[in-house]
Amino acid sequence: MKLTRARVINYKSIDDSSWVRVDDVTALVGKNESGKTAFLQAIRKINSISGEEDIFSIRDYPRKGYIKYKKIHDQNPCETAQAEFELNAEEISEIEANFGDGILASNKIIVTKNYKNERNWKINLVESVSQPSNVTTFTQPSTPAPTSFQSAVQTVENVSNVSERISEQFLEKWLPKFVYFDNYSLMRGKISINELRQRTENGGPFDDADRTFLALLTLSGVSLEDLEKDLGYEDIKVELESASITITDEIFEYWQQNRQLKVEFDVSLADPRDAAPLNQGKILHVRIENARHRVTVSFDERSKGFVWFFSFLSYFSHLEETESGDLIILLDEPGTALHAMAQKDFLRFMDERLSPRCQVIYTTHSPFMIDLEKLQRIRLVQDMDGVGTVISDDPVHNDRETVFPLQMALGYQMAQTLFLSPHCLMVNSPSDLIYLQVLGDMVAAESGIRIDPRWVIIPVGSTDNLSTFVTLLGDNYVSVAVMMDLTPTNKEKMEAINRKNELEGENPVKWVQVTRIRDADIEDLFEPKIYLQLVNLSYANQLDQTLTMRSITESNPRIVERLKVYFAKTGIAGGVFDRYVPAAYLLENFEDFKAHISEDSVEKAKALVERINSLITESDSIDILNSSQSGGSRTSRSASKNRAGSKKSGIKATGTVDLGSIQSSAAVGSLPLQTQF
């Protein structure tokens, strides 16, 4: 039987979740307190692996209708949890073998659980069985099966009897067990052996943490009685650690964080000073050894990520050994304690390890627990005013907070894949991008030289964002260049980035400075009077008088900086000069304004284009070819970068490019272009 849909009615925050489609792996995405956990808790009670300990209580009925419902509860209990299952061909054949061919009108059946904890089945039989038969006997499984539906009808009293017998004989034993696991299921670092044994003898009660520990004992073949005995201590420890090593080794197939961890066990007498029940009898200590730091800590004092993974895998491995029937795993916020990359690994764990064995439904509000290649598994959970919790797969009709994790996941993917060229040129702002485009087009029209299409230009805001952007680019680029002002502070940041790149076998980030003087912006490619004319046109509605070179008397050689000081002093445009305003005006009115741009500015832009293009070397092209042939793996890419870094022409030991080794056709007087590593 495979779960295809589920529905929850009148449970805690849920009035009616509506039918929720379920896949092999299904993700319930929503903000805190939206009802994700309530949905899992309700459907698990249909057939909880915890048995009678996990049942509905009338107190969970929504408060707004509680008094009214309490009056009718005994006569008409609400069917709170509903699940639709699909029977497979083998199951259908077995039913037909006992009740006749074609008795089922559909391969879908529905099971419900009400507030009186009664489980009921809804089976769609063919219409021909709607009238009672005069025959009052029923074919037992040992009796030869009827060969047709008509013969089956003659062996039953009525439809209700048929449905009951189908459910009792087959559906009940095929119904999957629901296994719920959350942060309260984590194994404890200290366990009172005597107290747990007594509860075991009395049939409980057990909480989820107890069940996790008992699962580990089952895997190791050790009993609580063995732990209480003095004899065989070393044997017991060997068995426990053998089980933990097996589980840890399996975790490391998916755990890419600190791999120098090991779970250890020890038994000691209780400390009377500890709180009950840890103050008497024998105590089992579960500890984690960190070989990197050569220290052990109590299991429940360790980073929650590894503890959660170990606890869950212990429990799941136990279920694999002890449960022969189907399982449905319900994971409540499984990625909460995991690093973003560990969450990605856990997604792979669910697909490769869990889903082949059982269906999985998990809740999350983390963008890293969303697999964008499998968006069909996403269900959005929203708590709506006057309606309660509603679950759907339609993002259009959900609020921003609900779809935010999905938006973040999409944004991360776009950041990794939006810029597809192998060479990245980082600039300050969108205005730099506009000037490169406009002046680059003028250079191409006059000389045929244009910016190499292999460059992708990315505005990053400022040099403060450089290290973040370089890190985010990761392995997506063969070479990275930066066109910003080279101040001493910025130079230090670049050197720090390149020291890190050198250690990791990455190409250095190259610095492109377009200036005849030390401090300059791309706007300084224009003659000052021409750029000021562009500012006057773009800010015409906000200027009381035309700006002149005499107006901006600040001594800073960068015209943009002088304008910033003037705007702040006079309060024009709220005291803020926006570089993007004149750039946008130029882009929109280029045909009218291009006649004002001098040949000298075009020549300077030509020199800039040539210098930028010269940063792509032949070895960079080899890097791209090697990377594509090797499938783009990090190992091969890093190796090719090491080769490229050692072969780049003009690189001196000090890390500075020898400009004399780079040929340029720029006219005399064009701005020199410095490239520093």
Automatic annotation (TrEMBL):
Region listing for Disordered, in residue ranges: 626-652
One Pfam family this sequence matches: AAA_15
Annotated InterPro entries: AAA_GajA/Old/RecF-like, Bact_Antivir_Def_Nuclease, P-loop_NTPase
Domain Endonuclease GajA/Old nuclease/RecF-like AAA: start-end pairs: 1-370
Composition bias, Low complexity: 627-639
Name of the protein described by the UniProt record: Endonuclease GajA/Old nuclease/RecF-like AAA domain-containing protein
Native organism: marine metagenome
